[in-house]
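How it folds
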Amino acid sequence: MMDYRIKCLPSGVLIFTITRADTRNAVNFRVMEGLQEAIEQASSADVRALVITGEGGQAFCSGGDLSVFHALRTEEEAYGMLSKMGEILYRLAVLPKPTIALINGTAVGGGCEIASACDFRVAKIGAKLGFIQGSLAITTGWGGGTLLFERIGTAHSLKLLSEASVYRAEQLDHIGFINQVVDEADEAAAESFLEKELSVSSGVLSAYKQIQIRKWEATGLHDRMMQEVRQCAILWAKEDHHRAVDGFLNKK
């Protein structure tokens, strides 16, 4: 059974859906491969925008699948996984098309990192979001912390990351992390959010996105993301992290 689904709407909006509702749409290696595939498909001329979401009404993405990734014990083992996803999120961030995280439910840990890699975040009212990595004795590990500092103000970014707390979507719209709160985060909501962009030439949209991409290239975004990934890998290998994950899995 596939862990993801990719489909293109008649409007030219490509939808990537994580279909692992039983794991709260946690990311495993197959989901990573699917996201790579979606980014490649989104590069096609007939695709106007890329939307990322999760299956069901409970979760957008609960981050990395700890039942799988907890087997990674050393710094280098962790770095292999973390850097793979970090490269994917960098490619997502610099895709010259509008990208939206359609947050249909809980987005925590790596789920918030995926959301940070997107240009816009549209969230269902009441959806819970949090960069909770600190509670597992690690930092953001896919480059999402670096991307967060690019998306919203420094003080707000540092607060969200350092607290490792969970917030409701409507608490995060005033700081710019959530761009729109909706009753239902479905395909219709995504198309409605993009309504004006979809009426503008794709060449114009790409040209505007390239302005941002050039800034990121000039400020070494990729290198900064990879430094973040390496720092997480160092913390990942420490006993504090393994003990915290053991406690989390046993509690579940």
Remarks:
- The mean pLDDT is 97.
- The beta strands are 4-8, 13-18, 49-54, 59-61, 99-103, 106-108, 120-124, 128-130, 167-168, 180-182.
